[in-house]
Amino acid sequence: MAFLTILAKDIRLELRTRESLAAMVVFSLTVVLLFAFAFDFAPDLRGTFTPGLMWLTYFFVAVLGLLRVFGQEKQLEAYDLLLTAPVDRSLIYLGKSTAFFLLLLVAQLLSLPVFVLFLELPLAAAPGYFILILLVTDLAIAAVGGLVAGLSLRAPAGDTLLPIILFPLLTPILIAATKATSAALAGQPFAEWDFWIMLIITFFALFVLAGIFTFDYIAEQ
Fold first, then answer.
1. CA angle at 203 for the pair 197 and 209, rounded to the nearest 5°
2. Which whole-number Å values give the CA distances from 115 to 33, 55, 195, in the listed order?
3. How far is Cα 69 from Cα 106, in angstroms, rounded to an integer?
């Protein structure tokens, strides 16, 4: 029940303001248009560079979203009040991470058509596999991001600390997502690139467990 309450609270807050979602989508569109018009890739090279560019964009979109979502709570002093609630703090971590997962997924779905249109992302080549990669990667990003944001939120320089910690932790996930996306959209059999999916799932599982078992301690720091 507490998990659903926290999740619903974050969703209602975003639906009321739409500030974080708007910032994430606008950033995505700006990067796509910048690369589409500033660089003249040969048609046969677009399929090589586009998956990496897409995940690099979503990498920074995720950081921007975390800074805005958790920073807003810090400004409103809502996070400290949330920690005083008589609930298991692991549910706070799970609720906020799930809300961020949904926010990131919506931002991606709104910007994906622009990737297809301007950077010729061959999404139709393997839509099922692409959705699988998107969901698994977003879950891993949310698991890592929720834990790191909870760690840095109460620090004096939390806005600076968050990306410094987050970048090295998310880099293996983004590399695996790029490899898997490139292979899937190139038509390679799943057995040839399932290692990357397993790697992302492993990161997701490890950080979810770390969040469940350590968030109570982290929240007190």
1. 135
2. 9, 11, 26
3. 14
